Structure formats: C-alpha cells, structure tokens
Amino acid sequence: MSADVELNNVSVTFGSFYAAKSVNVKINGGEFFSFLGPSGCGKTTLLRAISGFQDPSEGSVLIDNKDMSGIGPNKRPTSLIFQNLALFPLMSVSENIAFSLEVRGVSKGDRQKRADELLELIALEGQGEKKVHQLSGGQKQRVAIARALAVEPKVLLLDEPLSALDLKLRQRMRTELREIQKRVNITFIYITHDQGEALTMSDRIAVMNEGEIEQIGPCDEVYNNPLTPFVATFVGENNPLFGKVKEINQNKIKIETPDGDFVSTMNENKKLNIGDEAIAFVRPESLFMPRDGDSFDNLIDVNIESFEFEGNIKNFYATLKSGTKIKFSIPNAIDTSSISSGTKLQLGFESTKSSILPKAQLAID
Amino acid sequence: MGNYLFTQPFFKKNGKAIAIYFLVAIVFWFVFLVIIPQLYMLDLSFRSNVPPLARGGPQDYYTMEHYQHFVFGSKTSLDAFNFVDLGVFGRTILVSIMVTIANLLFCYPIAFYIAKIANPSTARLLIVSLIIPFWINELLRSFALRILFANEGVINNFLTGIGVIDQSILFITYDIGLYTGLVYAYILLMMFPLYNAIESLDINQIEAAKDLGSSSLRTHWRIVIPHAKPGIVSGCTMVFMLTVGALATPVVLSSPNTLWFPQLIYQWFNMNDNWSRGSAYSIILLIISVIFVLAMMRIFKVKIGEIIK
Question: What ipTM did this prediction achieve?
C-alpha cells in the first residue's frame, strides 16, 4: 500500500528565516522521489514536515488526501530513516526491527515472525540476536530500513541515510534501496545533497535552493533541460558562458558572448527577450573535438591549461579568448596524446545539448 | 632500584617530576585517607572501650561486645534485642531508600527537561538556579527549612493567614521537615548524573521511537531510562550513601523523639566517649552502603565502571 503525498504551499519559518518557502509538490503513490539540494536548502525541513516533527508555518501536508495537521509523527502512515540511522544500541537487531510492533501491543511470537520475515528481506537471516554494534555499516543500514518497514508504512522517508558509507558500499546500497522499493511498492521520499544518488535511484527529483523548489521532473529531464542556472550547475557539472540574447526564432535562441555566438534550442519556460542578459550552459561531456566531416551548431576556440586523469574519462581545463575557464571531458578510450598544456583547439557542441537561461545565481558561486 | 624505576614507561611518558608527583598524591590519598583510617576504625570497633592511658594494658582486649550491643543491647537490659538501636537503624535505611526514590522521581523530569527540551539559555539558567542554593552551607539550609516548616513558621502562617487551615500542621513533629530536608540536601548529586546521562542520548533516538509509533511514556521506558541507567544508579548510590550518613539535616530538622543513625554514632563518639562502639556502628553503616551499591548494580545490571563514568 502506497500513498500520495502532497505539499500545498508549505512554508516553514524560524523567526524571520524561511527554511521552506511556498513549496508545492505532488508525489505519486509508489514513486521514488528525491529532494536534491545543498545543505541548508530546506530539504530536511520538508522531510520533517511530512513526518510530523515540524509543523508547517503555512500550507498543508496531505498524505493519502488526508490533511495531516495536528497529527503527530507516531500517528502518521510514514516511517523515517534518520541520517545517523538512530538504531537503538541497547536492543538486539530483532528488537529494533520489531519495536514499532511492540509499541502497538503485538504479541511476542508475532513480533518475532515479522522480524524474521524482514531479516530475510534484508538478507540478514538468523542475525536477529546480534547487538547493533556487532553489525557492519551496510548491515546497520539495512536494519534501519527493515525497522522502518516493519509498521508497513505507506510512505518511507529517508534523510541522507547513505552519507556515512564509503563509496563502494554507497553504490551498492543505491541499487539495493531501489530494489527494496520495487519489492515493497511504497512511496519513497529521499533527501540528498548528492546528485549521483538522486539521479540513479529516483523516478523524479525536486531540486531545492534556499527553501524553494527550482525544478521538479524526471532525472533525465532535469539534467538535460535545467530551468534555472542554479539547477544547471548543481545537478552535474556545467560550463557557464555569459552574454546577451541576440536572436530568437521559433525554437532557437542565440546568445552573443565575448567568445562568440552560440545557439541553443529553446524550451518553453524561458522568458527571454532580445538584449536580456543570459547564460549559455554546456556540459563537459557535450564538448567534442571535431573530426573530419563533423559539423557542430556551435564552435569554440580554447587554449588547454591542464588536464587530469579520472579513469574512465580525462578532464581538460582550458581558457577561452575572454579568459573564461572551461572544462571538458573525453572518454579514456579516445587517444588524446597530442593534447598537452598550451595546445590550441577548436571544440564543438550541439544546440540541443546546451541551454540558454536568464542570468541568475549559480550553484558554484 | 631508583634507576630501574625511572626507566618504566610511566616515568618516560609523563616525565620524572610529574610522575613522582602523581605517585605521591595517589599513594597519600589511598594510604592515608582511605586505608589507614578505615583499618584503624575497624580495629577500634573490635576493642574494649578503655581510656587512652589504659591502651595496651590488660583491660585492652579484642571483643565482639560492640556489635553484640548493637543487636542485643546492654547486658543489663531485659529485652531480647536492642530494639531502640535496631529501630533507629532500620528506620534510617528505610527512610533513606524512600528519600532516594523520591529524589529520583523528582529529578528525572527536571533533568530530562533541561537536557532535551529547554533551549540552551533556559537550560543554563535552570542549572545555575539549581546550584546557587548550594553555595550556602548545609546546616544553614536546614535551618532555613526549619523556619519554613516550624509550627509558627512561614508555611503555617501563610496557610492560616489565607484561611486554608485553622491549626498549624506539625511538619516537624511528623518529620515532614526532615524528609523534605533530606531530599533537598543531596539533590544535585542525583540531578547531575541524571542530566549527564540523559544529555548524552542522541535526540534522534527519541524521535525514531516516536516515529515508530511509540508514546512518550513508552519512549521513556524503553529508550531514555535504559540509556540513563548508569546515571540513575550513580545518582541513587550517592544520594543513598550521603542520606544514610547525614548528620546536620537530622540534627536540625528531625522531631525531638526520633533519631537518625548517624546521630547515634555521634552520641557514642562525643557524648558517651565510647569510640570503639561508635566505630562499630560506623562499620555497620559502611557495610550497608556497600550492600546497597552491590544491590543496585545487580538490579540494574550495570558495571561499576559505568556508574563512575
């Protein structure tokens, strides 16, 4: 059983500070939804508003179309997984998992049965008698998930639960979380500042900045068609090229910059007029070295400064004519031995792979 | 020998001067302040009561008579047991246990409030207001309570003044003043271990329990109290030991017809000039305190290391 979660115009204020500002979002039942944003952007506040630990100052939280105002965290159909997991150190693994049943007065035998089922779900059969401190980081993670699932919540809330794990384990847990979500088929709401986590697991993401949602959409849409400079630079990497709008026709927009004119496909949300200050964004992986016969919508002259080897790709750092710095990456499989510091190159990128957005705050500032 | 000593890791780690200072301080404390006085008292409690000049003479011999006196009374008494002393002893233990429990019940919510609910500035204010009264000497605090509880005291005058009662309540006669005084006397020794223990609990643990559907009461029972157990045991043992050994508060606040066990000890030492019997009674009190600590550790399943922490 999963449930829709709806935030209607939710604001949370602390004194005169808006931790969340007029947030509107409808999360569908069974969806894996992530709030993505830098620390302090208000994503945890929203999660606490959904779980019932924080009353919204304005607006309302609806779960399963029911207004949750005045309903405490222990009465909501939600379970929260804390950043530090908050497992109970003095209880055994089974006791931890069955705690929610214990407080509901479920008999000991039934509790044990349910705990065993959940231990199986998280592949920890027969380890129920262990104490929490005897488990590894990944196992603790899974126990926290099992404990949260024991009440059969309609919505599972996850507050950056993977942030304490090392890279390999984190990557494995991403896949595992996604699989568990599919198996139990309930709504997952995930909070993270790690865009990789958000993109790999989520059906949709909401990118937040300073208490407000900047963009909501499926991962690829947010990545490929960011609506604001903040989203463009927070989700993945992006090179900003500052300039002024020069031409607009049906579905193309042209920007004039000190390093040349660039064209991008228009998307409907952008309210730009000729002469407006704007930024063209192009991602490092969308910049190519043209080979014979290639033609690109946009060309750009660069002067290589340095490069670094990352394994699957090589990153090159270059300057443009105006002094603007730019980064591009080339798959390791391509021979780049002719490029070194001081090399002058011409790079190309397609108009469909670039976005031109009204000038505003960047995430990298 | 000296050179061998100075090559030990302890000396290398701390440096010669500091290492010697540590050793001297520890040895002085342990030997002169702990072992010798206790052994001396233990020895004295088994010896006949003789004036200092007769020490070592024929009248100075080892005997169980002081312990026998505690249980059976004086040889001239007609009673089978020393009902008076045993009664005082039993009552002291019982009341001390009640005082300890009352202290725990009183301090737990306050400690929890300061540690987990109050904002930092309120918490600081509350802690300071707990401490300030204890800048005043215990004896004076007891007298202050006596003024409050006296038959013509502040409370009685107030209650008669507003017409709630028409006759004074005999707080002192019924030892209500004493019990209040004893609860108040060592309250900080309950408050701070409890506060420290509760403060160290991750707030997420409380929220997690709540999120999983737990009521406040159950969260306290299953999460907060188990976590605070070492603090509870530590507070209880300290309050019990100090209450059972209290002298100033009972002297000032107990009703004229009740005695507190340490008052009895005091009488043997000072009024009856029987140091041996006083020592025997002190040893009995010490044993009871040790038994109490061991019992607490057994009941709450905590180790001595956790209590001291």
Answer: 0.81
